[in-house]
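Incident log, support desk, overnight shift.

02:14 A customer reports that sequence design results differ from what the structure should imply. Their input is reproduced verbatim below. On-call engineer (initials T.W.) acknowledged and began investigating.
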């Protein structure tokens, strides 16, 4: 006959104890293969799978808390369906606790608004770091009216380094030129005097590349400035110099800098960056490779939140 009295440690309707399920979860996190967990606990693959994800879901419910005051947001690809293109997930990182706060299936503004409607505390966010995504910028401005949006320093500098590389390819015509490419993209302060002198002598023969290179170096100098007001003046001078350029690529880049001016300058209010978010994106990619792809987004979400806690 079925038991009519509740027994501590055995959930209603279960055939195994909570202690057994926790042990299986520990094994899943530490063993190299599912077969090893099955052999160690003498149970089916279904039981391992069921116990593991139930325990991850329980951990997630127990660790719930409002949206933190300092967050980072970014996207990464999760799968590529046949004839449907690449699908993306949005990751929200808690900078204060150095962990992933939430993972959302999709990156459109409507999807983000719908799938974060249940989360409390967006109105208390003070700092939000992001890359040059207009979607995330619009979403954060709507959901976090008090937040200071900060454009990631790496993505700002990458706009000019990519432009330097583009003009360099027009000259060398080969992507496999690690020597000059590395020297051009490196901060000139890290070069010895002879290398710097030879590089400038070579650049003078190519005025368009030399002009873009000087903008790149000016941006490096801006990020070494302490204090927003001084950085604002120097950044304005850079935009003024770029306005006089005859290169269409430089004019296009100047428009991007102008539209993201406040977010770029907000970096100097505390030095916030999206580096931690990019690091968790890397961890997400490693998790995908380890799993040989993703079938269930919800299970992937639980795994990532568990790995990055």
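02:41 Re-run completed on a clean worker. Output:
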């Amino acid at each position: 006959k079925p038991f009519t009295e509740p027994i501590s440690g055995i959930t209603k309707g279960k055939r195994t104890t909570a202690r057994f399920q926790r042990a299986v979860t520990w094994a899943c996190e530490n063993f190299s293969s599912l077969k090893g967990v099955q052999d160690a606990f003498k149970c089916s693959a279904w039981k391992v799978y069921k116990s593991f994800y139930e325990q991850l879901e329980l951990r997630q419910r127990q660790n719930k808390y409002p949206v933190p005051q300092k967050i980072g947001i970014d996207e990464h690809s999760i799968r590529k369906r046949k004839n449907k293109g690449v699908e993306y997930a949005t990751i929200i990182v808690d900078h204060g606790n150095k962990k992933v706060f939430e993972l959302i299936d999709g990156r459109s503004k409507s999807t983000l608004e719908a799938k974060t409607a249940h989360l409390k505390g967006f109105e208390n966010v003070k700092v939000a770091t992001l890359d040059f995504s207009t979607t995330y910028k619009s979403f954060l401005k709507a959901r976090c009216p008090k937040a200071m949006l900060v454009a990631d320093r790496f993505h700002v500098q990458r706009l000019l380094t990519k432009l330097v590389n583009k003009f360099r390819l027009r000259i060398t015509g080969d992507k496999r030129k690690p020597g000059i490419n590395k020297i051009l993209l490196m901060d000139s302060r890290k070069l010895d005097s002879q290398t710097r002198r030879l590089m400038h002598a070579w650049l003078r023969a190519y005025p368009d590349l030399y002009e873009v290179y000087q903008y790149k170096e000016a941006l490096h100098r801006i990020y070494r400035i302490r204090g927003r007001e001084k950085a604002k003046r120097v950044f304005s001078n850079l935009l003024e110099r770029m306005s006089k350029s005859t290169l269409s690529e430089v004019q296009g880049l100047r428009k991007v800098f102008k539209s993201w001016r406040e977010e770029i300058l907000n970096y100097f209010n505390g030095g916030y960056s999206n580096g931690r978010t990019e690091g968790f994106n890397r961890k997400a990619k490693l998790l995908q490779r380890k799993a040989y792809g993703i079938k269930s987004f919800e299970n992937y979400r639980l795994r990532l939140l568990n790995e990055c806690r």
